[in-house]
Specification:
By secondary structure, the chain is of the alpha+beta class. The chain has one domain. 24% of the residues lie in helices and 34% in strands. It contains three helices and six strands, in the order ααββββαββ. The chain has a four-stranded antiparallel β-sheet with strand order 2-1-6-5, covered by helices on one side. A two-stranded antiparallel ribbon has the order 3-4. The radius of gyration is 15 Å and the shape is globular.
């Protein structure tokens, strides 16, 4: 039987496939690197993560939450990254909370830095 978590994973995979490729949406971008420090409530040590995008990557900028209890949350960086590209910005940093609307809101956040290289 399908549960809500499995359906969320299937939906996220379909969104990624529907997003198209970086090369077609952002032909002037040669790479995007998202470096983040993931912090979850109740866990003492933050986790360092790096997500890389190349022209052959899907243009899908929602990073999954690492919490096993998180069903459909994550860190949506789409607006930030598209704004950076439109302004030809090379770096940006900040903090985001997980978008999960489940029973544990505010369960995780990230401190991030985005670096974009242009052709």
């Amino acid at each position: 039987m399908f549960n809500r978590n499995n359906q969320a994973k299937i939906d996220r995979k379909q969104e990624r496939l529907d997003s198209g490729f970086m090369a077609s949406h952002f032909p002037d971008v040669s790479s995007i690197v998202i470096s983040m420090l993931y912090k979850e409530k109740g866990i003492a040590n933050p986790i360092s993560r790096v997500v890389n995008f190349s022209p052959a990557s899907h243009a899908f900028f929602k990073v999954d939450c690492l919490s096993k209890d998180c069903i459909d949350g994550g860190f949506d960086m789409t607006r930030l990254i598209t704004s950076m590209i439109n302004n030809r910005s090379e770096t940006s940093s900040g903090e985001l909370g997980c978008d999960d609307s489940g029973p544990r809101p505010d369960h995780a956040n990230i401190t991030y830095e985005v670096a974009i290289q242009y052709s």
